[in-house]
Amino acid sequence: MKKLNGFENYFIKTSVKEAVKKAEADIISLEGEGKRSIYAQGYLTMIGNEILDKIDSMTLKKALKDGK
């Protein structure tokens, strides 16, 4: 399996973080309108963190070391 490089890691992680932030804001907005969401507040943050960990495991170790 081909591993991700540092830029690919950064790009995907940034996209996931923004998607989670927007999804959590949508859940808060729905609750403010008195509606219920399928997902509880915080659930998507937890899933997003798991995805971020998986992305790191799919990235070249050298790219992770250089990026930190």
Give the arrangement of secondary structure elements:
Layout lengths: L5 H27 L10 H15 L3 H7 L1
Helix pairs in contact: 1-2
> What Rg is obtained from the alpha carbons, in whole angstroms?
15 Å
Residue windows where pLDDT falls under 50 for at least 5 positions: none
Shape: elongated
Return the structural class: mainly alpha
Number of strands: 0
Describe the structure.
The chain has 68 residues and is an all-alpha fold. It has one domain (6-67). It has 3 helices and no strands. Helix 1 (6-32) packs antiparallel against helix 2 (43-57). The mean pLDDT is 93.
Please summarize what this structure is:
The protein has 68 residues and is mostly helical.
